[in-house]
Design brief:
The protein has 411 residues and is an alpha+beta fold. Helix content is 39%, strand content 26%. The protein has helices at 3-9, 11-17, 21-40, 80-86, 107-135, 205-215, 217-220, 250-255, 263-268, 283-290, 314-321, 326-335, 362-370, 376-380, 384-390, 395-410; strands at 46-51, 56-66, 77-79, 95-99, 140-148, 152-156, 162-166, 181-192, 195-201, 224-232, 236-243, 273-278, 296-302, 307-312, 338-343. Strands 7-6-5-8-9 form a five-stranded antiparallel sheet. Strands 1, 2, 3 and 4 form a four-stranded mixed sheet that branches. Helix 3 (21-40) packs across helix 5 and helix 10 (283-290) packs antiparallel against helix 12. The model has no long low-confidence stretch (mean pLDDT 84).
Length: 411
C-alpha cells in the first residue's frame, strides 16, 4: 500500500470526527515516526514530508556513504556499493536520501500503524470534547434522551456527544422518554481513560440561577443580580435577588404579573415552589425575609456562632418550618445561619396540631383532623374514652399524643 493510500483510507473517518486535514497530517507524522523508531531504532535521520492540500506523505531516510565493509550503523550509514546502486556517481562521505515505502515497514508494522492512528485520532477527539465541555461548566445545555436506565439517563447532543444525568442529579418528578429534549447545567466534566464523562444536572442551584438568566430579561441584561439560590429539588427553592437600580423592583420583575415570568421556570423544575426575596446585608432582615411567608415577632442573633433564635406566634410556626421542614432548612442555607424557631406565649394560646408533625405522625394528625380536632387544646379538653369512640386510633397512640401535647403546654 502506498503512503497516500493509507491517508486517504482515513478521509471518511476524519470527516466523521470533524478533524481538520492539517491536524490529521500532524497526527500521521507522529504515528509514522513511532513506527520508524520501532523498525530502525531511531527516527532523527528521517524526513517526513507532508502535503496537507493533497493529503500526500513521503518518508526519506538519510544515510552517509562509507567504504564497503565499514558500515557500523545500517540505519545511518550505507556502503559505497549499495549507494552506487541507487546512483552510480555517489562517493564516500556524501549523503544519500532514499524514499521508504510503506510496504518496507512490514505487514505487522502496518497493522500496528493503522491501530495507532485510530487511537491517536480518538484521543485528539476526546481531548477536544473535554476542553469544549469543560469551558461550558455551569452553563445550561440541552440534549436528547437516548437511553433510560434505572440509575442514569444517557443523552446525545446534535454532535453525537454523550452526556449523562445520574439519579442524584434528576428531579424526583422527572420522567424521561427516548427522544425527549432535556435541559440542565454542565455540572462536571472529567476524562475517564481517553473518554470524556459529561455530567448534566437538573438539581443544581446553578441550574435555577441560569434559568432566571434565560427567562428574565433584566437578569440577562445584568440589571438584576441573582445573589444566591438554594433548592430542595422538585419541592421548594429560595432565590435572593438584588439590583443597583432603585427604580426596579427585583422581586416583582422576576415573578411577573400573577407569576407570569416565573411560571416557565416552575414548570421546568417539576412545579418546584420558588420563593423570590430581596437580598440584604442586614442579617436580621435577611433571616426575616428568608422565612417568608411566616411573620416574625422577634429575632435574637449570635453573630459569632451564626446562630439565630426566631420568635413567632404559634399559628406562624408551621409556616416558618414548612412542609417537611423545607422552608426553615432552605432559610438556613440561604442566610448561613443556624435558625431555631420558638413559639411566643404558648401558655395562653392554642397550637395547631400540624405544628407537632415532627413528633406526631401525619396519619395520626389526619385522623384527628377528620373529626374536627385541629388544635392541641381541642384534644386535651376531651376524655380518652371519647377520643377512642370518635377515632380509629389505639389507646396507646392517643395517650402518647396527649403526653406530647401536655409537655408542650407545661414548658
Amino acid at each position: 500500500m502506498e503512503n497516500i493510500d493509507l491517508i486517504n483510507s482515513f478521509s471518511e473517518f476524519k470527516d466523521d470526527k470533524l478533524i481538520d486535514r492539517v491536524t490529521l497530517m500532524a497526527i500521521l507524522e507522529d504515528v509514522f515516526r513511532n513506527a520508524l523508531k520501532k523498525k530502525y531504532g531511531e527516527d532523527d535521520n528521517f524526513d517526513i514530508i507532508i502535503n496537507p492540500d493533497k493529503g500526500d506523505l513521503e518518508i526519506w531516510r538519510n544515510r552517509i556513504v562509507v567504504n564497503d565493509g565499514e558500515v557500523e550503523d545500517e540505519n545511518k550509514e550505507i556502503s559505497l556499493s549499495e549507494a552506487q546502486k541507487i546512483e552510480p556517481d555517489f562517493e564516500v562521505g556524501e549523503d544519500v536520501s532514499e524514499e521508504v515505502k510503506l510496504f518496507q515497514l512490514g505487514r505487522r508494522a502496518i497493522l500496528a500503524l493503522r491501530q495507532n492512528l485510530i487511537s491517536k485520532i480518538n484521543e485528539h477527539d476526546s481531548t477536544n470534547t473535554y476542553k469544549h465541555f469543560n469551558e461550558l461548566t455551569g452553563e445550561i445545555y440541552s440534549a436528547e434522551v437516548h437511553h433510560v436506565r434505572r440509575n442514569v439517563v444517557i443523552l446525545l447532543d446534535d454532535e453525537g456527544n454523550e452526556l449523562v444525568i445520574p439519579k442524584d442529579h434528576q428531579i424526583p418528578s422527572d420522567f424521561y422518554r427516548k427522544g425527549d429534549n432535556i435541559r440542565g447545567v454542565i455540572e462536571h466534566v472529567e476524562l475517564k481513560g481517553n473518554k470524556p464523562s459529561i455530567i448534566l444536572s437538573r438539581t443544581s442551584p446553578k441550574f435555577l440561577e441560569k434559568l432566571f438568566e434565560q427567562e428574565i430579561p433584566e437578569v440577562f441584561d445584568g440589571l438584576i443580580n441573582v445573589k444566591d439560590a438554594v433548592r430542595v429539588p422538585g419541592e421548594k427553592a429560595k432565590v435572593a435577588v438584588d439590583t443597583y437600580d432603585d427604580r426596579i423592583d427585583p422581586v416583582g420583575a422576576c415573578v411577573g404579573m400573577k407569576g407570569s415570568r416565573i411560571h416557565g421556570i416552575v414548570r421546568e423544575l417539576g412545579n418546584e415552589n420558588i420563593d423570590v426575596i430581596n437580598y440584604t446585608t442586614n442579617p436580621r432582615l435577611y433571616i426575616q425575609r428568608s422565612l417568608s411567608p411566616a411573620k416574625i415577632v422577634d429575632i435574637k442573633l449570635n453573630e459569632d456562632k451564626k446562630y439565630a433564635e426566631v420568635i413567632l406566634k404559634p399559628e406562624e410556626v408551621s409556616k416558618a418550618i414548612g412542609r417537611g421542614g423545607h422552608n426553615i432548612r432552605l432559610a438556613c442555607k440561604l442566610t448561613g445561619y443556624d435558625i431555631e424557631v420558638f413559639r411566643d406565649d404558648v401558655q395562653d394560646e392554642d397550637v395547631e396540631l400540624s405544628e407537632f408533625s415532627d413528633e406526631i405522625e401525619d396519619w395520626v394528625i389526619a385522623e384527628f383532623s377528620r373529626i374536627g380536632l385541629d388544635t392541641a387544646k381541642s384534644i386535651l379538653e376531651l376524655e380518652v374514652g371519647d377520643l377512642l369512640k370518635r377515632t380509629d386510633l389505639e389507646e396507646e397512640t392517643i395517650l402518647n399524643v396527649i403526653k406530647i401535647l401536655k409537655e408542650e403546654f407545661e414548658e
